[in-house]
Amino acid sequence: MAERFAAYLLTQGVDSIAELEGDAWGIWIRDENQVHRAKEELAKFRDAPDSPQYVEAQTKASRLLREDEERRKRAKKNVVNMNSRWRRMPNPGRPGSGFSMQSTPVTLVLIAASVIVTLLANFGNNPENAVYRGVMFMDPVHRDADITVRDFDQPQFRLTDIRQGQVWRVLSPIFLHLDILHLLFNVYWLFLLGSQIENRFGSLVLGALVLSMGLFSTVMQGMFPVEWGGWPWGGGMSGVVYGLLGYIWILSRFDPNSGLYLSQLTLILMLVWLFACLTGKVGPVANVAHFAGIGSGMSLAFLRILVSRK
Fold first, then answer.
1. 3-class state of residue 17 by DSSP
2. How far is CA 265 from CA 64, 118, 174, 185, 269, in A?
3. Catalytic annotation on 238?
């Protein structure tokens, strides 16, 4: 009878435990604020313990307990072990973090390529530099062409060199940086974000992400109209960096099992800088590439989540 009463209390939202104490049963109410109500229900129960409402309560209580257990299991799956997550994050200064030169080859190659190309191009300071001319979306010599803005925005003009077979130009601008701070900024974030993804998902995944984000951000920056921020002579890994940021942001937010992590402070700082660049107060910036990058990164992350849930 005690168990039947405890089951009835559960269906009424009163959490209790029925325990056998010697020869008698005791009912323990978990919330002391519900003790008075439980006493009132007990008085009613004693008058008619075999009433249908009490008999049926046992079946209903069993169902409620099963549902509660299922909720607990689902909640447990969503619990993220931050200690193990931090251990998985690459950190060259922390022994046992899983970071090594061999574990992030794509990240290191991208960093090396950015430094080498930028130095060979002399940061784009010499318009006659062969490397500088060869890696831009469009050869800088075309800037001196006697052409109207309207014609300048025509796709056939922007694609002058690419249409001649120089297809590498749709990606190569990501390796050229136009000043030392630009290079250091992008190398730093590429290392932090890229190595995290490469350690977690492998070199092929990071390579595919950089390829897709780099292509999309470069083409968007190179083809957008001038009045919308388009400019075919922009350069840098910023579009890719923002793409990786968006990718980690979405996966860490909506897929706790991804093992990726992005601090709130990092996200806020990067987003503040993203929109600060729109003001024009920080100099010429490839804003189209930034937004194309973060948009592509977020989209690829959502796509990964959808595919994994099928």
1. strand
2. 41, 30, 26, 17, 6
3. yes
DSSP readout, 146-165? ---HHHHTSHHHHTTTGGGT
Closest CA to 173 of 114, 116, 228: 114
Could you give the number of structural domains in the chain? 2
Kindly list the distances between the CA atom of residue 180 and the CA atoms of 76, 89, 119, 285, in Å, as whole numbers in the listed order: 47, 27, 10, 14
Q: Give me the phi and psi of 27, to 5 degrees please.
A: -110, 120
pLDDT digits (tens, 9 = 90+) for 263-273: 999 999 999 99
Please identify which of the residues 114, 182, 258, 290 carries the catalytic annotation: 290
Question: 51 and 197: one domain?
Answer: no
- Tens of pLDDT, residue by residue over 164-195, are 999 999 999 999 999 999 999 999 999 999 99
Q: Which of 77, 97, 117 is the endpoint of a domain?
A: 77
In this structure, the answer to whether residues 250 and 195 fall within a common structural domain is yes
Residues 197, 242, single domain; the answer is yes
Question: Among this protein's residues, is 290 annotated catalytic?
Answer: yes
**Annotated catalytic residue, options 238, 252, 258, 296:** 238
pTM of the entire structure? Answer: 0.69
